[in-house]
């Protein structure tokens, strides 16, 4: 029997998000969002129209309004007399710390904006950011926003190859990076990947300037005339910068995410709507009270969670937050709890995969620290299993903190489905209901909405929302095809399976397309397959996401070797050199997060008569299940061959 958890009256009383929000949004959808935009954001010029959906699926929100995102995240808090409030408590992996107030942040952002201008960056130019989790990452993003130069942040764990594709697709003229980053106590290079991404060979790079933050102090290769040290260029700049207001629909950033094909999609977001919804959700879902809370989102800035819930939402709200550079087990497995204890963190937003890892490490580790400051817990990135939810509440939340399980995507820009911590009776494992202002339904195979419990269907969003993606960079058609055609133009197709329970709660059931979710990171099967096939020994590859206790899903690859490779390799088992080499090859092509957990060398792949690989059957093998229906295979003996080959 499932147990649900009602909010305490004390929590409800102080909560930002109250029950009447649902009614307000229901009775006047546009009026509701217009009020959020005016209440939470400072506009240099007020908007005339809330939503223009006449050119659907291309939305315009807060039409005619003008604002500057960076001014909203920084300057206006200083102007309101909160310059002394801490914006960022930075905690380096090695224990170095920095305290940055809003007044400090204003100066840092102004200097960086002046520097970028001096280097020729102007409104509309794209800037790539490839940085570790250091304050300069936040500063760089805000400096770009200040100039109206869309940033494209590339996760520091991505390879030179992946960086190259993203720089080329966005046509970025400047890259901001660091000499290196600290990972598990050791410096690892970053600048070298930027060099390789630029000197790629096949085409001329659009990059004219590389601005390098000094972090690890390791030696780096230096290209005169192209490479500049951040501290030499930025530190000498004037500490003020006059910001210009931009149209509400001015592009704010591009962020690449995996889709069903090999080519990553450049999801692009604009200014007014994005800022409104990130600020609103951070206030009502995380229940942020900027005067008293210490907020900590453990995501990396290279993912959308870092964009929306480290940079734009919390800073627009004037939050005090922790920024942590490193991993949870460096130098010891209590590091997160030590940080919570040290800074009196009151709101913690993290991923289910991290929680499952902490569970595995043992209850005694968090028990050593004082976690009583925590009053709201959140999760994002994948479904959270009820056991992990209960452990999180019990061992981290002192048995009483509400947990908000928030469903959203790079494309949605901000939280869409989640409990409100002061209103919703919490049901562990379910993200529950669309937040006020958002509408979702579940459709069957025929595209008909239904509400019966336990029937599995497809999650769709039925109304535009302010922080929605405005497209895929440079590819209008792909935007329409991917999101607005599966069930017709009135439904945004999210790509997730979902069902209702008897109480009308929505349960998210994972991707229904060829996208995997490994530790909350989106990876495309096609992208990993094409990385594998680019290895000289591989003739064909099929990749599936198999269930994994800790990471949610794990990458499992089936490969067919080329004739010559087969003859040369003495051994092709799990630990063999060749398999190791193939795994490293994927890391080089995409990044270590994409490394297959398992590579199985097979002689055939299961295909339908039309030549489509039947991943469902491979998934059965990868998850050690009895193999399902094989009747649609072109050659039904293939699965037997695969399985007998594996047992050898
Ligand atoms: C999954 C991350 C279940 C989902 C913000 C979605 C979730 C994909 C949840 C987007 C959740 C995210 N419960 N599944 N609370 N949150 N997902 O673009 O499959 O990296 O489509 O954005 O993560 O991943 P993305």
From TrEMBL:
What are the binding positions for CoA in this chain? 183-186, 305, 519
InterPro entries found in the cross-reference section = Ac_CoA_lig, ACAS_N, AMP-bd_C, AMP-bd_C_sf, AMP-binding_CS, AMP-dep_synth/lig_dom, ANL_N_sf
Q: Does the keyword Manganese apply?
A: no
This protein's GO cellular component annotations are:
cytosol
Q: Which UniProt keywords apply?
A: Acetylation, ATP-binding, Ligase, Magnesium, Metal-binding, Nucleotide-binding
* N6-acetyllysine sites (modified residues): 612
Cofactors required: Mg(2+)
Domain Acetyl-coenzyme A synthetase N-terminal: start-end pairs: 19-73
A Pfam family per the record:
ACAS_N
Q: Of which family is this protein a member? A: Belongs to the ATP-dependent AMP-binding enzyme family.
**Listed name of the protein:** Acetyl-coenzyme A synthetase
Organism field:
Marihabitans asiaticum
């Amino acid at each position: 029997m499932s147990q649900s958890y009602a909010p305490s009256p004390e929590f409800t009383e102080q909560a930002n998000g109250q029950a009447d929000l649902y009614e307000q949004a229901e009775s006047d959808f546009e009026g509701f969002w217009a009020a959020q935009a005016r209440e939470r954001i400072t506009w240099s010029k007020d908007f005339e129209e809330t939503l223009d959906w006449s050119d659907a699926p291309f939305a315009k929100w807060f039409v005619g309004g003008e604002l500057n995102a960076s001014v909203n995240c920084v300057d206006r808090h200083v102007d309101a007399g909160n310059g002394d409030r801490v914006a960022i408590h930075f905690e380096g992996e090695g224990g170095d710390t920095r305290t940055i107030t809003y007044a400090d942040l204003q100066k840092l952002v102004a200097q960086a904006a002046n520097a970028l201008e001096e280097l020729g960056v102007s409104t509309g130019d794209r800037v790539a950011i490839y940085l570790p989790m250091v304050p300069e990452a936040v500063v760089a993003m805000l400096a770009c926003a200040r100039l109206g130069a869309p940033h494209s942040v590339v996760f520091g764990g991505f390879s030179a190859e992946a960086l190259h594709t993203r720089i080329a697709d966005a046509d970025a003229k400047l890259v901001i990076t660091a000499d290196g980053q600290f990972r598990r106590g050791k410096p690892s290079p970053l600048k070298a990947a930027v060099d390789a991404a630029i000197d790629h060979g096949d085409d001329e790079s659009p990059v004219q300037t590389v601005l390098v933050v000094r972090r690890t102090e390791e030696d780096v290769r230096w290209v005169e005339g192209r490479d500049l040290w951040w501290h030499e260029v930025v530190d000498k700049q004037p500490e003020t910068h006059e910001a210009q207001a931009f149209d509400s629909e001015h592009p704010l950033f591009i962020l690449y995410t995996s889709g069903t094909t090999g080519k990553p999609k450049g999801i692009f977001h604009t200014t007014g709507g994005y800022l409104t919804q990130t600020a609103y959700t951070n206030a009502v879902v995380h229940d942020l009270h900027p005067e008293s809370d210490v907020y900590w989102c453990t995501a990396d800035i290279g993912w959308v969670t870092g964009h929306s819930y480290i940079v734009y939402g919390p800073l627009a709200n004037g939050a005090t937050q922790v920024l942590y550079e490193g991993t949870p087990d460096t130098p010891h497995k209590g590091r997160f709890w030590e940080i919570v204890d040290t800074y009196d963190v009151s709101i913690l937003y993290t991923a289910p995969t991290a929680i499952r890892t902490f569970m595995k490490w043992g209850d005694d580790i968090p028990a050593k620290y004082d976690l009583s400051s925590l009053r709201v817990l959140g999760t994002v990135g994948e479904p959270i299993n009820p056991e992990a939810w209960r452990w999180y509440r019990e061992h981290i939340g002192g048995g009483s903190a509400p947990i908000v399980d928030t469903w959203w995507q790079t494309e949605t820009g901000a939280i869409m489905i989640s409990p409100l911590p002061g209103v919703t009776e919490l049901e562990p494992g379910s993200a529950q209901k669309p937040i006020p202002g958002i509408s979702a339904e579940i459709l069957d195979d025929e595209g008909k909405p239904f509400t019966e419990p336990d029937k599995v269907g497809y999650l769709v969003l039925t109304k535009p929302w302010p922080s929605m993606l405005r497209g895929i960079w440079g590819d209008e058609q792909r935007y329409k095809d991917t999101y607005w055609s599966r069930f017709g133009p009135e439904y945004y197709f999210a790509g997730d399976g979902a069902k209702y329970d008897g109480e009308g709660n929505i349960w998210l059931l994972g991707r229904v397309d060829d996208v995997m979710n490994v530790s909350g990171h989106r990876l495309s099967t096609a992208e990993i397959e094409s990385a594998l096939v680019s290895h000289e020994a591989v003739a064909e590859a099929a990749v599936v996401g198999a269930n994994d206790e800790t990471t949610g899903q794990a990458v499992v690859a089936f490969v067919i070797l080329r004739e010559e490779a087969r003859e040369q390799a003495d051994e092709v088992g799990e630990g063999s050199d060749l398999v190791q080499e193939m795994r490293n090859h994927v890391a080089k092509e995409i990044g270590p997060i994409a490394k297959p957990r398992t590579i199985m060398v097979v002689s055939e792949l299961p295909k339908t008569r039309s030549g489509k690989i039947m991943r469902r059957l491979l998934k059965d093998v990868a998850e050690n299940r009895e193999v399902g229906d094989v009747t649609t295979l072109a050659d039904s003996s293939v699965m037997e061959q695969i399985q007998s080959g594996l047992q050898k």
